[in-house]
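Continuing from the previous page of notes. For each protein in this section, the sequence appears first, followed by its structure tokens. Read the first protein now.
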Amino acid sequence: MRRFLGRVAGAIALVACVVASLAHAENPAAASDLRLEPIRRFRAEEARQAVAVDAEYFYAIDDRRIGMYAKRTGERVASWAEREGGPIVHLNSGVVLDGRLHCAHSNYPSVPMRSSIEVFDARTLAHLASHDLGLLPGSATWIDRREGLFWVGLANYAGRGGVPGRGPEHSAVARFDAAWRPLGSHAFPRAVVLRFGTRSNSGGAFGPDGLLFATGHDAPELYVLRVPAAGALLELVEILPAPASGQGIAWDPADPDVLWTIRRKAREVVASRLVGSAPARSDPARAR
């Protein structure tokens, strides 16, 4: 009997070790002290797809409309809406660069996937330009700029809007030069792809320490990723709970530790402060 109980205890211990190992693989930096603390919330009717932000305003983004709001008061000061039958059908995340709001745009859920970057004046919301990205291996969901290059999230879905044979595991982050010539891409680690479910990467923005903070379609969490020094696979640093429902996010240029997110069902924009510090690279030789 004692021998039997000992075997049972050993089996339980083994299962516990396996579960712990899987948990660590899913969230390798679970012991870090990074966290988001909400500091402001605003109602915004257009907060369905994303939020972008500059020094004075935040921009709530829906499929075919944009609302511009004062950061201090939450008052809407300007708006834009696509005309009936117009070419802009599915705006996604946005980022303000050099006084212009750049939005990732796609023909979702139509296939084959076509994407563009739509550019608006950040003060008047007048539509200024469109950069046609053509047929990419995914649907453009977010845009950011880092070290002189444009970075664009390319989503692939297992359900609506997807292409047979190309599920969420084919989602990627593509790089383009200033003339929008493709330079290559990075894949998401398996632990993040699993959390996408049948959907994909919806938002992304480079934040503190040069880390990429990415979201899925619905989950209230952020995937903190590091661009690798070598290879094409993004490195998972941390999975953070977040006051968000996936979708597009933005770092505040006037307060670099503040991240803006949206809560779709509440039509709400949330500003949160990132506190704590990210863990260092596990392999110092790979640090840049």
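Done with the first. The second protein uses the same format. Note its length before scrolling.
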Amino acid sequence: MTKITKALLPAVFAMFLLLSACSKSIGYTKDALLMDTFVHIEVNDAMEDDLRARAVDKVVARMKGLEKRFDYFSKDSELSKLNRGEKTSLSPEMKKVLKKSEDLRKMTGGAFDIRFGPGKKVNLGGIAKGFIVDEGIKILKESGVKNALINAGGDMYCMGEGAQGGWKIGIRSPEDSRKIIARFRVRDKGVATSGEYERHSHIIDPRTGLPVEKILRSVTVVAGDCMTADGLATALYVLGPKEGLSLIEGIDDAECVIVDDDEMHISEGFPQIALTGVSKFKN
């Protein structure tokens, strides 16, 4: 997670990777600045406004607490204490994210790795946001919500039917945020994207310690939870289309769309996850 200043906020807003679309009656929504990005929470259940508002406030509080726990730059965060080697018991949340990170490291052959540098410090920027989104969804479910979306700057979870038989997702063009290069619908899935939106020179291949060689336009992963989608999207950007598709085909409940210079690579099972199919790629 990188720090941003107020001067950068308009640019960050324009970098929202994915869009959700719904009917004119969108129910209750709330936007907040968390995890150095804009977070959009939308509840479309037929509940009393005060109940929806209370549930969303709980989500924001939970996400803020987790953000502090995983903050790489805060000397007081649990992650910083871990990196300093302080003897302290790890929280259940930290244990879960570290366990998932190790599973993904093995699964991807090291293309996803939270440790970097000669001191092998841990940076959870490639997975913590997805976990925090999942935890927010958990709060909504516990509050009785069945139809909602949390979008944290492109890492999102789409719960329920949305407005029209599934949440409508659009992948924005890295070159022009006003253009959509692919559309599909999902329900009860996590979605995450990596790509030129994140300034490719900042996406490092953990296996070499260098910026990724192949510059892809974008990689979008749909999975059963946002944490998995988040980690896999980063890994697939590192791996590229051929290795990335090969990896995804061997993982249950995960599909992807990889946009290269001049074509779109879609995993075999994506049409089943994308309830309305994927639109054809156009330059």
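What the second structure shows: Residues 28 and 49 are 7 Å apart (CA to CA). The radius of gyration is 18 Å. We return to this in next week's lecture.
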